[in-house]
Amino acid sequence: MDRQRTDKNEETSAQGRPTLKTLAFMTGLGVTTVSRALKDAPEIGAETRRRVQLVAKQIGYRPNRAGVRLRTGRTNVISLVLNTDREIMSFVSDIIYGVSEVLAETPYHLIVTPYSRSQDPMEPIRYLVETGSADGVIISRTQPNDPRARYMLEHGMPFATHGRTDMGLVHPYHDFDNHAFAMEAVRRLASMGRRRLALLSPPPGLTYYGHTLNGFADALSEVGASEIPFNTVSIDQSIEQIRTRTAQLMRRENRPDGFVSSGAAATLALVAGIEDAGLRLGHDVDVVSKQSSDLLHLFRPQLLVVNENFRLAGSELARSVLGWIGGAAPGSLQGLSAASHVLSLSQAVLV
After folding, report:
1. Long-range contacts at 131-134 (CB < 8 A, ≥ 24 apart)
2. What angle do CA 208, 212, 215 make, to 5 degrees?
3. Cα angle at 249 between 246 and 253, to 5 degrees?
4. What CA–CA distance (Å, rounded) separates 165 from 280?
5. Residues 190 and 301 in one domain
6. What is the mean pLDDT of residues 184-193?
7. Reduced to 3 states, what is the DSSP secondary structure of residue 279?
8. Pick from 42, 72, 102: which residue ends a domain?
């Protein structure tokens, strides 16, 4: 009965939208044959399958999602859950591009599920799980003990995290090696004679905050440099807050002569604060920053950068979720991007 209802849904979709009946008319085949050809049914000849699928692509045919769900129990949807208050636009656009690029070769579609600072981060996750609105979920801003990951594991929802957890549970993830980034940044500053270093850190509470902090501390010990505390702000603060507090810090007698910054947008504010204090970048102080695009070279050529590829992260996260849906072991779907060497911006443009 459900099969009959599915075929009926496909045959009678909204006026103007190509349907199974449209494909049947254009190919001279029956509706049932067309439906099976689109699903690569082995009883349909290879040439017929190719012809039907080519015509479907040419006229923009898309299967009716309600029908697909009735037939298979799946939505063919992957949801990317994003905090709209916190995620910067370069991250959003790049990670969406990476996910979409992978899904384009599959029957799956991407939906973005936003939530705001005023919401409980669990709300969109509960909604997706309880309503069965997606077959898989991708989350960011991962915490060491992340209740979203635990909830989805308990409810059997395939997912992947941008960043790692630290709660002894195995799940897919893709992460950037922020410990290595911080160590490499400190080493580079020390090689330039910088001895008093400050860290503009990730937001406390997220897993990569601890990774970055540990890498920074390990490298300080290795090179014999000292830390100038700068824990009144993180890259989550507003540009104006970062700028003001940087200027305050740089007007002190025991000011830093080097900074490690965890985010490109925050680096813009950091440099503005340095200059507000009457100091010169590349002369009085040097900055090593992460960036995800070639933005910083348009701002100050004296900046030193390490590139983090969010498009790659999106692609790997999409592959991980699809792999779990396809039956792969979650522990085999984990990836860590290596931090590249610190580059001058003239080098970064060429990479």
Report:
1. 132/75, 133/75, 133/77, 133/79, 134/75, 134/77, 134/78, 134/79
2. 140
3. 150
4. 39
5. yes
6. 96
7. coil
8. 72
- What percentage of the chain carries pLDDT values higher than 90? 65
Say which residues have a Cβ less than 8 Å from residue 226's Cβ, sequence separation at least 6: 195, 196, 197, 220
Same domain as 188, residue 113: no
Q: Which two three-digit tokens encode residue 241?
A: 């807050």
Query: According to the model, what pLDDT value does residue 64 have?
Result: 62
In this prediction, residue 86 carries a pLDDT of 65
**Pair of tokens at residue 5:** 């209802």
Q: Please answer whether residues 38 and 63 qualify as being in contact, where contact means their C-beta atoms are separated by less than 8 angstroms.
A: yes
List of residues 6+ apart from 166 with CB closer than 8 A: 144, 145, 207
Q: Taking the alpha carbons of 184, 188, 193, 199 in that order, is the dihedral positive or negative?
A: negative
The Cα–Cα gap between 42 and 92 comes to 40
Closest CA to 182 of 259, 297, 70: 259
pLDDT of residue 78: 97
What one-letter code names the amino acid at 150? R
* Structural domain total, the chain: 3
User: Do 136 and 193 belong to one domain?
Assistant: no
Stronger pLDDT, 63 or 70, i.e. the higher one: 63
Q: Are residues 61 and 183 in the same domain?
A: no
CB 319 within 8 Å of CB 136: no
In terms of Cα–Cα distance, which of 33, 102, 22 is closest to 62? 22
CA distance 138 to 96: 11
For the beta carbon of residue 205, count every other beta carbon within 10 angstroms. Answer: 12
Residue 141: give the domain boundaries. 77-175+311-337
Q: Is the pTM of this model over 0.70?
A: yes
The whole-angstrom separation of Cα 53 and Cα 13 is 19
Cα angle value 277/280/283 (rounded, 5°):
140
Indicate the pLDDT class of residue 293, thresholds 50, 70 and 90.
confident
Quote the strand ranges of the chain, DSSP E.
77-83, 109-115, 136-139, 159-162, 173-176, 196-200, 226-227, 258-261, 286-291, 304-307, 334-337, 343-344
Torsion of CA 25, 30, 35, 40, to 10 degrees: -110
